[in-house]
Amino acid sequence: MRVKSQKSKVKSVASLSLVTCHLSLARGFTLLEIIIATSIVAVIGVIISQALSATTKSNTKVEILKEVKQNGDFALSIMERMIRNAKAITSTCSDTGSAGPSVTLKNVDGGSTTLTCQLDGAISRIASVSAAGTDYLSGTSVTLGGADCSSASLLFTCTSLAGVANTIAIGFRLGQKGMSPSIFDVASQSFQTSVSIRNH
């Protein structure tokens, strides 16, 4: 009888220990553990947010530069073709090169066309101006920079050498419209080429 009583006491003590252990586990996290976990989650959240922001900015910049390049390449190809097919260059040319913000061409049909900067609202754009009107060669989403065409980046340099067809060097910078001058210098793209007129 006494043996049974002792066994019963042992079982009671074991059961009490298990209950105490379960209660200890069920008690949950301490305040310090919660603070540490929250801090870790916050730091990870900031890192992820910064990474996503950097990726978005990078993608946006790539798209902007892509659009700038498409506009610049298009304008350059049109001007190259017009100069190459011109009958003559009526702007001043010299053996050392005469530079200016525009160049005037005499067309095969006898008319004349001026390649220049035109202010379209607040946007300085590359344009072809003739008796038929004005054709813009760069889009409304990009600009030559500057507050007006007098400070824009478009420049033509005409060189005339004896026995050689006149050559025009074209140079300009395009950037997204609305950029400040300091950002324009960094985020814009330069375009340049040299083209000679054909002999007619």
List the defining traits of the structure above.
43% helix; elongated; 200 residues; five-stranded antiparallel β-sheet; alpha+beta; disordered N terminus; single chain
What is this structure, in a nutshell?
43% of the residues lie in helices and 28% in strands. It is α+β, with helices and mostly antiparallel strands and 200 residues long.
Strand-helix topology:
Layout: H1 2-26, H2 31-84, E1 88-89, E2 98-100, E3 103-106, E4 112-120, E5 123-130, E6 133-136, E7 142-143, E8 155-159, E9 167-176, H3 181-187, E10 189-196
Antiparallel strand pairs: 1-3, 2-8, 3-4, 4-5, 5-6, 7-9, 8-9, 9-10
Write structural notes for this entry.
- The chain is an alpha+beta fold.
- The protein has 3 helices and 10 strands.
- The strands form 2 sheets. A 5-stranded antiparallel β-sheet has the order 1-3-4-5-6, covered by helices on one side.
- The radius of gyration is 37 Å and the shape is elongated.
- The relative contact order is 0.13.
Q: Give the biggest beta sheet.
A: 5 strands, antiparallel
Order of strands across the main sheet: 1-3-4-5-6
Distance between the termini: 131 Å
Identify the overall geometry.
elongated
**Would you tell me the overall average pLDDT?**
81
The ordered H/E elements are: HHEEEEEEEEEHE
